[in-house]
From TrEMBL:
Organism for this UniProt entry: Heterodermia speciosa
Gene Ontology molecular function: hydrolase activity
Pfam families membership: Peptidase_C78
UniProt protein name: UFSP1/2/DUB catalytic domain-containing protein
Parts forming coiled coils: none
UniProt entry keywords in alphabetical sequence: Hydrolase
Domain UFSP1/2/DUB catalytic intervals: 254-478
Residue numbers spanned by region Disordered: 31-58
């Protein structure tokens, strides 16, 4: 039986309507109600059989505004909260077992990774990018702890938020065939701000300013004083930590990882539904770090959201996935949701090779495909992708030089950095989610060799398995 948890106190109940009443009576200081029943707002009419995360929700479901800024289905709030708990995991929480054995850091400040794992990327300029994850994370926690920030939207905005999701709906194969007849989309596909001409001035200024930048002086291995640049919502070095944790997780039989130079880029406070852009930034961080094809297009820092909008508009000018301009009415300076077509257009316009694949439960050709849940097809496709890029398949943890993958489903998009197979027979995707920042426990282990008796606790926030994926019947991959 599912229980719904109050976001403001420990109260929980299996009746969502009772929880709504509890919040209204017990927490009257909250100006705007955090729950809105789906039936209380109108939605756009169905478009060509396409569906959105909002329409895919249970008909009796309500929504709650999490303090992280996301609007989450009431039925999924418990699992969403669990990921936030994993996001806050400290070494003290993860390192203790029933025998009170703590994490042992075997080395720090030395070359902590093999050549395949790589160390921090050495940039050609004197300034290196290295997310050290200290002051920026405490600042993020303090921003989220302010109850008054939990409900920055008015009641009307609450209703608008329910029209959409955090990224554009994946295009089905049928929708792709209809791109020649593209028409203007509405809130069901582009989110609550589908028809705005410009985002609010305060948000534009926040995006122009970007996340907080901290520059520190450190001695290099050669004894030279070097400036390291730390950006509050970008963290480098997460993948080598995860690969060590997977090595130590005895429940795993096989694990694949992409190239280690992928940064974890997360959303800034109150920015809204820019997950698609954040995942593009993670893909670009790989291109920069690995100096992959097209890296010369991204000198210096990762392009900002506003710069990515300009690049997508330029791709449309070149005729690449140009139906997106008709569907969106243009995205420059707006909060309209984007998705795989826009990410693909951007990459192709810069001559960066990529390929998009759609997986839809209602558009499968043979009996075998129809009998297999669509998310299991995703597992097989991704496992094949990684195994084809692996030299030594006998290793438990296979570290490849492959790019990460952009995965979109209705309501959200993620960056896939790996896949793990468990001895029990189950499979999980390993992801970087722009909705959740790296935990303090992960941050403290970056750049170290370590041992822990409970690796699964620190890995939890990066796993997406059957429980997460089976809720959806449509996915799109960009690789």
């Amino acid at each position: 039986m599912a229980f719904y948890h109050c976001p403001f106190c420990p109260f929980s109940d299996n009746d969502s309507s009772f929880l709504v009443n509890h919040v209204g009576l017990t927490h009257p200081e909250i100006d705007d109600p955090p729950f809105v029943a789906k039936s209380d707002v109108e939605d756009d009419p169905p478009r060509d059989g396409r569906w959105t995360g909002a329409r895919d929700a249970p008909s009796d479901g309500g929504y709650i505004d999490c303090e992280c800024g996301e609007t989450v289905l009431l039925s999924e709030f418990s699992s969403h909260s669990d990921l936030h708990m994993a996001e806050e995991m400290a070494l003290e929480d993860a390192g203790k077992t029933e025998h009170d054995t703590e994490i042992t850091i075997m080395s720090r400040g030395e070359p902590a990774f093999t050549d395949a794992e790589s160390r921090m990327h050495v940039w050609p300029a004197d300034v290196k990018s290295a997310s050290l994850g200290s002051a920026q994370n405490s600042a993020a926690v303090s921003q989220r702890s302010d109850v008054s920030n939990k409900h920055a939207y008015g009641l009307k905005d609450w209703a608008n938020l329910l029209f959409g999701s955090n990224s554009r709906t994946p295009l089905t194969n049928k929708a792709k065939r209809k791109q020649k007849n593209a028409r203007r989309l509405g809130k069901a596909d582009l989110g609550p701000h589908a028809f705005e001409d410009q985002m609010p001035i305060w948000l534009r200024k926040q995006l122009e300013q970007g996340a907080k930048v901290t520059i520190t002086n450190r001695l290099s291995a050669e004894g030279r004083l070097v400036q390291y640049e730390s950006i509050a919502n970008e963290t480098r070095g997460v993948l080598p930590v995860l690969s060590q944790l997977c090595e130590q997780d005895q429940s795993l039989s096989k694990v694949y990882f992409c190239h280690p130079d992928v940064q974890h880029v997360v959303k800034m406070a109150k920015e809204g539904g820019f997950c698609g852009y954040r995942n593009i930034q993670m893909m670009i961080s790989f291109i920069q770090g690995a100096q992959s094809q097209g890296w010369e297009n991204f000198p210096g820092r990762i392009p900002s959201i506003l710069e990515l909008q300009d690049l997508i508009e330029r791709a449309w000018d070149l005729g690449i996935n140009s139906s997106g301009r008709i569907e969106t009415g243009g995205i420059r300076g707006t909060r309209k949701f984007i998705g795989t077509p826009e990410a693909q257009a951007l990459m192709q316009s810069l001559n960066i090779p990529c390929d998009a694949s759609a997986f839809n439960a209602n558009e499968r050709d043979n009996a075998l495909e129809k009998s297999t849940p669509v998310h299991r097809q995703i597992y097989r496709h991704i496992e094949q992708y990684f195994s084809n890029g692996t030299r030594d398949t006998s290793e438990k943890v296979c570290r490849t030089s492959l790019p990460p993958l952009y995965l979109q489903h209705p309501g959200h998009s993620l960056t896939i950095i790996g896949l793990e197979k468990r001895k029990s027979g189950t499979t999980n995707l390993l992801v970087l989610d722009p909705m959740f920042k790296p935990s303090p426990g992960i941050l403290q282990l970056i750049g170290t060799r370590f041992r822990t008796a409970s690796p699964e606790k620190l890995i939890k926030a990066y796993r997406r398995g059957d429980g997460y994926l089976e809720k959806h019947t449509c996915f799109e991959l960009l690789k």
